[in-house]
């Protein structure tokens, strides 16, 4: 039997390879990327630079649960993209709102590039999900192994309840320090560490895809294109930071703040009122530090108005935004490529009452 | 031979006895410009001007007040300059003589403009403080604090927080910071629980709503 | 006026036997009598016949405007058929003779022996008729290749312009037997000294004579028109050279045009100083060229397209344009814009629900589940 094979090899022909049906493959072959209309349409719809090839875009749509091969799935790209997104968002928030408290910072970060946001972004981009991953699936669909219905995904069971010293921390209160040290860019400690083979939710797959896409854009097209992409798709989303605050004792916090900054003690003054003895009175109260008004609030009772005014005053302190801001990534680049670096304002910290 | 037609008096016209002669049109009247009615006469502003009268609304939390601006911010200087200019303008708007017979409206206007320019509320009864401001006294020494604790531990029912605050001339809150009486707290809590158990559905819901409302004060504004 | 129906008379009964003996059996006796009486009545006429000859003969004579028009008799058979007898009026009562004459002339055949075949399976070769070959004006198949079409246009230009130069009156050029494509490629086009017309410039005299020879060959009646008896090419050439040349030949001076820029309808360009008959002449040239091109390629152009052809290049461009395919599938295949679009996929079959499930990846799950339950899976 060696002769025919040798002859065939001498002739330069390979032996016949049995054709594998596409269904047997875990993900579509790279050659299918060129013939997929969905993929080309997605590329054009997002106005992706032409330097980003269709094959890479197809790769960003394949979750590790669909194809464990690290060369063919988006895990590595997603890692890079996650760091990039977190970096750009954090520098934007810290540079534009230097006085934001840590919790609000985490919340804003999540609002810009968190899991739910990225899932919404995927939906807005019109990326549909395949029902079941396979080689015959259209490369333009998001491919991932779906989690079985009925599985508990609340994440309460999964979590670092035991510390390195073996102490059970499940009953400990989660403080800001713990979040800063052990949490991810959103301050979450119970990061999704479930087994990818067991299946993932659509939200998880979507956020992996978006991160992978950002990573792919960075690798193929450079930082400028990535920043432009980020600015047009993520930074352009409207977020009202004032809704992220939740004060427990605003009056006390305000008085601590004034004491710290050396202002006169805040005094709440009644600016106007109506219907005091009726069922729905309205009191408008302004908080003054000496002659300067810090904040104003209206409420149905004097206490409420005073509290709201203090909260407004604190918000106007925390939401201060400098005029001209240079973000660190803008100043990157050798020589004259980047902008001239102007140091950002660094605040001494939030008020801890 | 002339026809027997009814003659029309046509003064100054050629003899034309046609019936269809129109009456002479009056000469066009030279229109003199009428002065505007007194109600619409513009006496205050000789030129066109813009009236800026926005509706009253709560101030925007994104507009940082002058006091909160850091020293390095350029807007601080701009605002200060603006204030000084407004103050100067208000200062020049003075009555002619100290014994002026200026109307009270004009004087009120002057005072208002002065106050608005400086960005302060006039310290008038119009905006009284809600709580009377008091000076914080830090007069208690550690021995006094010890005494406070001893009293409280000795007889918590007699030496309540209220009485201790009166005695040492401090606030009840400060007394609670200094000394605690856990068994009294437990008793009071048990009493409160009993009372709460006797609440009906509506009352309970109303109280719960009140708690939530209080929480929202710090959140929504 | 219609003949008034008259009552059946006793004499009609006598004529019954001699009425319409060969009438079909489906006719009842009354109808047979009626037919016989009507035939008799139609044959009966007291006035002299208005026209001599049958209707078809009269029409033919009128069309050809002469007495003995060609085509008398049935051409298809090649043999003049016996005419229907002219019914002449007699003073005597036309009785049994008229129907009897009719009856003798026509008899329906019962078998097909000795009858003519019309159409059918017999090939062209087996036809025994001596009908002359029909000369088709245009070939049945259309030329598709751009090279062929270009060659045809150039050939048409050369032929028509050479005829124009030679002063030969245009006749219908028949289908060519000789190919002059190579020679036509060598001919150059030039504006004449008066700047009105386009002249042919031959690279050499041999080329010119060869071209003219082949052109004359393709005109069968040129010799007749010229008036000479011999159909020798040389003789006709001589005749061409000696006949009054209407236009001067191409001179050395003048700008050489590429063949695509040869104006076909230059009436607009040279409006100044153009005589009316010259305009007509130029339009004739356009028409002749287009007719010749149609003959050579088999492509018919619509009138609006012909109007648009100012130059030979535009004519070439119009000829290249093929008509739109009638089927959407064919139209999509040739549409380059659509086929090169990345976000468009074509499917040879209808995309059904199974295809859609397969694209999403659900079909294999469905198949597996059906097999697990032992249910039949449709043939996909």
Mean pLDDT, all residues of chain C = 68
How many helical stretches of chain B? 7
Secondary-structure element order of chain C, N to C: HHHHHHEEHHHEHHHHHHH
Q: How many strand segments of chain B?
A: 0
Distance between the termini of chain B: 104 Å
Based on CA atoms alone, the radius of gyration of chain B comes out at 41 Å
Low-confidence residue ranges of chain B: 100-125
What letter string, H or E per element, gives the SSE order of chain B?
Answer: HHHHHHH
For the biggest sheet of chain C, the summary is: 3 strands, antiparallel
Number of helices of chain C: 16
- Class by helix and strand content of chain C? mainly alpha
Q: Which class do the helix and strand fractions of chain B yield? A: mainly alpha
* Main pleated-sheet profile of chain B: none
Strand count of chain C: 3
Verbal overview:
The complex is a heterotrimer of chains A (353), B (221) and C (380). Chain A has helices at 2-11, 37-45, 54-60, 75-96, 102-113, 115-124, 176-182, 202-235, 250-261, 302-318; strands at 266-274, 282-289, 292-299. By secondary structure, chain A is mainly α. Chain A folds into 2 domains: 22-153 and 175-243, Ribonuclease III domain (Ribonuclease iii, N-terminal Endonuclease Domain, Chain A); 247-318, Double Stranded RNA Binding Domain (2-Layer Sandwich). Chain B is an all-alpha fold and 221 residues long. Chain B is built from 7 helices and no strands. Chain B starts with 73 loop residues before the first helix and ends with a helix. With 380 residues, chain C is mostly helical. Chain C is built from 16 helices and 3 strands. A 3-stranded antiparallel beta sheet of chain C has the order 2-1-3. The longest helix of chain C is centred in the last third of the chain and has 22 residues, at 276-297. The A-B interface holds A 242, 245-250, 263, 265, 267-271, 285-286, 288-289, 291-299, 302, 304, 306-309, 311-312, 315-317, 319-323, 345 and B 58-59, 61-70, 72-75, 118-121, 123, 127-131, 133, 213-215, 217-221.
Name the descriptors.
A: 353 residues; mainly alpha; Ribonuclease iii, N-terminal Endonuclease Domain, Chain A; Double Stranded RNA Binding Domain; 2 domains; 10 helices; 3 strands; 40% helix
Give a brief rundown of this model.
Chain B has 221 residues and is an all-alpha fold. In chain B, 44% of the residues lie in helices and 0% in strands. Chain B contains 7 helices and no strands.
